[in-house]
Amino acid sequence: MNRSRVAAVVAVAGVLALAACGGGGSGGAGSSSPAASGGLRIKLVVNGGLGDKSFFDSAHEGLKRAQKNLGFDLKVVELGSDRTKWEPGFEDAAAGDDYDILAAGTFDVTDYIGKLAPEHPDKKFWVFDAPVDYRGGGGVCANRCENVYSVTFKQNEGGYLAGFLAQKLVAAKALKGAESLSKVGVIGGVKTPVIDDFVVGFKAGYTSAGGGESDVLVQYVGGDKPFGDPAKGKEISNAMYGQGAALVWPVAGLSGLGTFESAVANKRYTFGIDSDQHETLVDQAQRDTVITSMLKNVGNALYKAAEQAKAGSLKYGAVDSIGLKQDAVGYVDNDHFKQVVPESVRTDLRQAVDRINSGTVRVPTAF
Predict the structure, then answer these.
(1) Using 50, 70 and 90 to split pLDDT, how confident is the model at 137?
(2) Is the Cβ–Cβ distance between 204 and 166 less than 8 Å?
């Protein structure tokens, strides 16, 4: 299949984006001893679990590439969905002597890393999808987090493209079986600046393409497992489709898997998030509901960081913010996308990318 990516890589997080599934303990590739190759040892600590088919799986994929191509030793620790176990889990992971770099992602972990980094000045820490507070204060970053690299994503730009495309598809009556529908939906895991950045961008793109903001339905999963509750994701999606949504975009990690089930049952459509979910989903009927995926290419960002770390050029003590221009967010343009989306709409979408990259369009943000 031709899977060229336009500005590809919405490289979430999330996203933003995000995941939290059951299961704990450690596993994955690599070992707890120094790599036989003498390469850097990296430990990915997941505040949740792998298997979301999007955000954390993208991070894992990028680090597996670093293991294969760059000689890194990789270990994965999955802390599960019980938030009470996250802080002690990070403390245990940081206390070990089985890593040179500890990598973790999402806004939920920034305070943990901000506390741990000064306690382990001989180690390096990577935080993706949210920055630590380098100013210090409040018990975090006592050393100004000079041993922490943070990378954030301009998910609002990916959200803009998602909203723009959604409106164009609705206006063109291009979605078979949903030609009479005028609403669309966005499901966030929890109301935070990162997740709201997707939503703000989506609404801006939808209205810039000629739609009305009142036609964008927004709801958050919330609860104890906002990024790990597929049943709640399905419930919200059913309600949105019942209100006349032609498509729903889940920005909710594992909770979003319920949206794909709902789309099949309701014979409607979806957008994927963070990874190409038309490829990563197992069920063919669910895959067919995915028009495209808005990419937040976390894996590519971490692989790039690994390349720089190996070369000794990665800048610690600072935030790296990346978006469309850096191929860190974008959308999947594959054969399935071409079959579903008319050429005129694809052209409009490419022009929207150009307007953002040129600065003609400045996408609003939740930050």
Answers:
(1) confident
(2) no
Tell me the CA distances in angstroms from 288 to 271, 277, 292, one per residue in order. Answer: 11, 10, 10
**CATH 3.40.50.2300 in the chain, residues?**
14-153, 155-297+324-358
Helix orientation angle between 55-70 and 298-311, rounded to the nearest 10 degrees? 30
Using DSSP's 3-state secondary structure scheme, residue 260 falls into helix
- Amino acid in position 147: N
pTM of the model: 0.81
For 51-81, how does the pLDDT look when each residue is reduced to its tens digit (9 = 90+)? 988 899 999 999 999 999 999 999 999 999 8
| Residue-wise burial string across 61-93, b where 16 or more C-beta atoms lie within 10 A, e elsewhere | bbbbbbbeebebbbbbbbbbbeeeebbebbeeb
pLDDT: is 146 or 138 the higher one?
146
**Per-residue model confidence as pLDDT tens digits over 328-364:** 999 999 999 999 999 999 999 999 999 999 999 999 9
The structure tokens listed for 207 are: 């209205």
Place of tokens 């609705």: 170
Work out the burial of residue 138: count CB atoms within 10 Å of its CB; fewer than 13 is exposed, 13-18 middle, 19 or more buried: exposed
The reply to whether CATH 3.40.718.10 applies to domain 155-297+324-358 is: no
As assigned by CATH, the class of the 14-153 domain is alpha beta
